[in-house]
Amino acid sequence: MRYNTDEFIKDIRSRLSDARFYHSMCVADEAMALAKRYGGDPHAAYAAGILHDVLKEQPRDEALRFFASHGVKLSPVELAAPKLWHAIAGAVYITETYAPEQALVDAVRYHTTGRVGMSLPEKILFVADFISADRDYPGVEDMRTRAKISLAYAMEEGLRFTVYELSERGAVIHPDTVACYNEIVLSQERK
Ligand SMILES: [Fe+2]
Ligand SMILES: [Fe+2]
Q1: Cβ pair 85, 75 in contact under 8 A
Q2: What is the rounded distance in angstroms from the CA atom of residue 118 to the CA atom of residue 165?
Q3: How much distance in Å is there from the Cα of 27 to the middle of ligand 1?
Q4: Structural domains of the chain, count
Q5: Range of the domain at 49
Q6: 75-95 per-residue burial string, b: 16 or more CB within 10 A, e: under 16
Q7: Domain containing residue 17: CATH number
């Protein structure tokens, strides 16, 4: 499926701050590069990168109204983790606005939590969000090195970071994140 990425860019430009817009474009570039490296679809990866944070700056009350009007029921963990809302809402929004392939919708839906059995497009977006050119957290260079070795190797570290960071500040951890982490650790052990 060919996407009108200019239209996607216009959409996020109207919804996001300069910094978030820049981040999204960096993630799109990184996702395209990872898709080329790992045999994915560079065009679809680029499109997913552009759209992944499309609703990241939606105010909380608006997000809750959006969920209600679209029949989305959040679990107690999801309700307690507003940082996850943009991925859930974003997937619904892009489905109704652009009707992209399901793989793109799922990549956006799971880019924050991960999940068991992630597809290549999902892994690509998940990792691109960690290592995009705008990222400068301590350890990002190690993540970039890992991403050159394998997506699973980078995801393992990203998930470890996420689980650690969330538990350290007493935040809930989404069951999809725990399941994804366990799956990757088990698969690495078997190597
Ligand atoms: Fe995000
Ligand atoms: Fe992001």
Answers
A1: no
A2: 22
A3: 10
A4: 1
A5: 5-189
A6: eebbeebeebbbbbbbbbbbb
A7: 1.10.3210.10
- Is 30:40 a contact under the CB 8 Å cutoff? no
Instruction: Encode pLDDT of 145-157 as tens digits.
Output: 999 999 999 999 9
Q: How far is the CA of 70 from the centre of ligand 2 (A)?
A: 23
Positive or negative torsion for Cα 72, 182, 119, 172: positive
pLDDT tens column, 79-102: 999 999 999 999 999 999 999 999
Cα-Cα-Cα-Cα dihedral sign, residues 176, 179, 182, 188: negative
Which ligand is the nearest neighbour of the Cα of 112?
Answer: 1
Give the model's pLDDT for residue 61.
Answer: 98
Taking residues 118-131, what's their average pLDDT? 98
pLDDT in tens, 39-49: 999 999 999 99
Ligand 2 centre to CA of 191 (Å) is 30
pLDDT, residue 191, reads 57
pTM for the complete prediction? 0.97
In 3D, which of 100, 120, 122 has the Cα closest to residue 110? Answer: 122
Ligand 1 mean position, distance from CA 129 (Å): 7
